[in-house]
Amino acid sequence: MKIYIIGDSISIQYGPHLEGYLKGVMAYSRKEGVDEALLNLDKPQGANGGDSSMVLAYLKERRRTGGIDADLLLVNCGLHDIKTDPATGAKQVPLDQYERNLSAILETVEDMRPRFVWIRTTPCDEAVHNCRPGIGFHRFAADCAAYNATADRIMRDAGVPSIDLHTFTRNLGPDLYCDHVHFNDAVREKQAAFIAGWLQAFAVAGFF
Q: Which of 3, 39, 51, 79 gives the lowest tally of CB atoms within 10 Å of its CB?
């Protein structure tokens, strides 16, 4: 059994823990270029899937060049979409465009081999995020909720299973972050355990 992950820097950070939890159960792989992505987690490059427009472009290219060799394709995007210009309030990807991108992502993968699984975007604490100097953009919890709600509706209507990493992470309590949006290693390990448990239950239930 093989999984393939396309996600933001959150997925890069819990990835090694997830690979460890799945050892001997499922083969783990992800969008390539982890070393490049780690150079700057706020700048999507390499293994960092970036916003929904970037994920859509990547999947279209993978479909054009032969697809993805996996049984499950786990995808997340949202944190880069909600990046907000402090001066204008403009989103990197407005909500209506985010909705169109997710619909196009589903259309792109429908004839590819892996079964599609959505991962809900992790929480954003604006009190932590927006007071940090030098980041250059804001994020707001209300936007995270709105974009997650839009994704929930799209995935529900399409019959796509979702892993609710948002609620799981939010319920872990205070002191989650190591910086403005990324989580400390103890949280990353718990996120990986949660996803691994979901995947194994999904497999045992015979859904793929």
A: 39
CA 81 remoteness from chain centre: 11
Quote the number of domains for the chain.
Answer: 1
Any idea which residue has 């992950």 for tokens? 5
Q: Beta partners for 12?
A: none
Q: Print the domain residue range for 151.
A: 2-204
At residue 15, what is the residue type? G
Which run of H or E residues covers position 189?
helix 185-204
pLDDT in tens, 7-27: 999 999 999 999 999 999 999
DSSP string, 107-133: HHHTTSSSEEEEEPPPP--HHHHTTST
Return the SS3 of 6: strand
Q: If you write DSSP's letter for every residue of 147-174 in order, what string do you get?
A: HHHHHHHHHHHHT--EE-HHHHHHTT-S
